[in-house]
UniProtKB/TrEMBL annotation:
It is a multi-pass membrane protein. SUPFAM superfamilies: Carboxypeptidase regulatory domain-like, Porins. Pfam families: CarbopepD_reg_2, Plug. Residues 1-19 form the signal peptide. Keywords: Cell outer membrane, Membrane, Signal, Transmembrane, Transmembrane beta strand, Transport. It comes from Jejudonia soesokkakensis. It comes from the Bacteria. Belongs to the TonB-dependent receptor family. It is found in: Cell outer membrane. This is SusC/RagA family TonB-linked outer membrane protein. Residues 113-231 form the TonB-dependent receptor plug domain.
Amino acid sequence: MKTKLLLFCFILFCAIVQAQIKTISGTVSDNNGTPLPGVNIVVKGTSNGTQSNIDGQYSLSASIGQTLVFTYLGFVPQEVRVTETSNSINVTMVEDAAQLEEVVVVGYGTTTKRKLTDAISSVDAEDIKEVPNANFQNALVGKLSGVQIQQTNGKAEGSVNFTIRGISSINGTQEPLFVVDGVPVLNNQESGTGAPTNPLINLNANNIESIEILKDASSAAIYGSRGTNGVVIITTKKGKSGKLKVNFNSSYGRSEATNKREFLNAEQYVELFTESRLNSGVAQTSIDNQLDALATDSNGFTNDWRNAEVDTNWTDLALVKGSILENNVSVSGGDENSTFYMSLGSNLTEGIVRGNTLERYNFRINADRSVSEKFKAGANLRIGKSEIDRIASDNLFVTPLQAIAQVPISSPFNQDGTINSNTLYPNFLLEDKFAFYKTNIWNFGGSAFAQYNILPSLSFRSELGYEHFNQLEEEFRGPETDFQGADNGQASNRTIINDFYTSNNFLTFDTSINNSHNINLIGGMSYEYSQRKASLITGIDFANPLITTLAGAATIDGGTSTATQRNLVSFFTRFSYDYQGKYLLKASMRADGSSRFGPNNRYGYFPAASIGWVLSRESFLENSETLSNLKLRASYGQTGNQPLGNFDYVNSVSIGAYGGIPSLTLAGAGDPELKWEITTQYDIGLEFGLFKNRIFGEIDYYVKDTEDLLLDAAIPGTIGIDGSSIFTNIGRVENKGIEFSLTSRNIRSKHFNWSTNFNISHNKNEVISLSDGQEENIIGDQIIRVGESLASFYLVEFAGVDPANGDALYFLNTELPDGSLDRNTTNNFNDAEQVVLGSPYPDIITGLTNTLNYKNLDLSFTFQGQFGASIYNSAGRFQENGFVFEDNPSISQLDRWQQPGDITNVPQLRSDGSNLGGQSSRYLQDSDFVRLRNITLGYNFVDLGPFDSLRVYATGLNLLTFTDYDGYDPEATRDDAGTLNRGTEFYSAPPAKTYTIGINVQF
């Protein structure tokens, strides 16, 4: 009887519980009645959830009394309680004007777009996904106003120039500060060759949730001496409470060079080679003998060059088809108290330059835990490994790109199939087969935080970070290669170990008085310590070329090691206030103490302030049907910059031997009064939104003034120091510009949506002063001159060709008594004066992105543009040389002057050098271009059983480039491009054009 009674009670209880659970369905739409697909609907406090379908419809189970939470990007979250009558719940989402409540990450905290008084640009994961590239920076190109991002060249590991609001330094760092999850990360260039690698290559774009670019001093000054070049704050993905989510993305692409230059074929080469020597009085017999020598391989066979028996396209041997295979998988989830995100990724890139590959693996785990209502903690761990097969820098003969100088009548191979070593310059195929240059990079790091809420309005947060960077460069050159330094080969090992420690500790006070006066105050300190160790060992004479380690060397002929360290201690505070969200005020101060300066100038102080006025919340505008948002803001602040060297403020010594006895020699002069570069920046901005934010954007005007530039100043050699300069503070440079960005939601309907984002920026860079009345500092074919941009091109001006005799002409440009320049021409290069003829920095950069969705089909594409800069081909005098050298020239030489009356810009070909000249504007061109940066077409499958979503897509990168530049590419620059050499190319590899297909699965 008791058993039956218990069974009856259990059945009754289940029936009651079952009666409490309801299936809720409905439709989610915007305030125009348009259904919203992809809205997240979750039963609050549980992992039970779903998403609305393409028609905005949803269905899920919930109990009476529970709450449904509806969230969708760009709309205000809504909560609806389930009642006994709630069988159908239809929800109208209210659009969040211009995403004004969107959270924006700033230094040591967060704010909202509505309360922001700074110039900050943001992108999120959606903006950078599915861009096939090993460098995450390249995914940002064209998407941010005031930000120029340029990969040095087309090498797989190529360095990236990341410039925010112009160049403000010459010898200080020019890169922005990168902060990942609140902790600064290493961004040191550690390549042992002239070809730099990307220091952030192990950072996987698939793990990034959002990126904020702090552009003005008000936003960046909280980072003090690290903020002059802007700050890039990267927030990685974190888990969310709810069901376990798995995301898998796999893509494969094929690559090729964006452009290949054309050079003479065998028949054209013989014709022009012969013509150039006849013009210089060389006998035909001698010419034939020279051509015989060029056509003879290393086994002594001479091909029939008269009938073009051999016609080698060396460019096709150097630039090859490449590929990219990328796989990423992530798992995330959690409950109300704990969340986690874990990912594993790989990238295998076969470069477009023969012998250049990249293999990269990444692991990351992020975890957060709310221990109690007052205490929470979290940590992340990341591991990255890259192995790069590298090629020689572009200033070495053995690099593949210099193969274009080889003559087409030379065969790359002997008749027996072996590699021909008897070529005009070293045959890079020998390098490809019998030598290697590998770089292995390990990054291990992580950070942890603990936050305790002392009071409801007061919290303390402590952050610790550590990063270990280990780079091993292994080089081996077999006896078959050129320049190996020994008859039987040579090898070297170079190791760099860098340990970087950071600590941030700060209090945050956040309160509201009468819901009108909102106050946020932070104060704390930061500490950084970096230790770097490097060692190099070399060996020669290998008995067996199969043994490529140094253990196989008969002689260890060199070795060295170095160690250095630096630290930075900082104190900072920031005060933010707003009244009813209408009147905004912020002020900050940071003090940095750096070991890179002497005791007298060790500390730098960096104040900043900004104000904002939200006019659209005033009574005279808040009911406007047209204007949905209008905010005026202004800011002022100072940031700093440090020298790259750790001990530039003290005299340096070199260690050596004198008569077999160890000795010290004074090697360099230090400046004990060395001090910070200081950048003062003013910014005024206007943010606006129209028609319920169907159109919104912002415009900024800024002035960025940097003084006490860190530069090398000449010193007399009579003071007994082995060096001609001292690193000190001289000069001042100014950047000023205007930025504009606009987003429009052109069409929003049930099945079709189309939005457009456009940005355009103008920047003018100008040197204001140098030291002691100095007006200029000439460095090769570039100049730092008052009134001009930094590193302007300083060249003899080419004036064309004399139609009477084919002479190359140059403008004299000597100064006349009235101050004007003599525009008469001369055929003597040495009689002409150098003048400023262009800048490597663009006046205008722009980007245009369109995103279209039709039902489950989506299309997005980005165009980027650059205008006003020049590019100088410093290899031009070898590629268009009139056969002074025997290099194979470009096809432009077919238009050479041949007889009186010819009108052309290509002088008569003369092998005696009388018509060659030096570095002139003949090789300087505009680098204006418009490029289809990326385009993606995708299709989303829904309702596929176990999958939440399945998406297939195709992506193209750098598909089209519109430019008048006749070199490889208007963005390709030489390996050693810094402030100097930016905008200069020298056998520089063009970027890759890539076609990719991929699949993304979530379940």
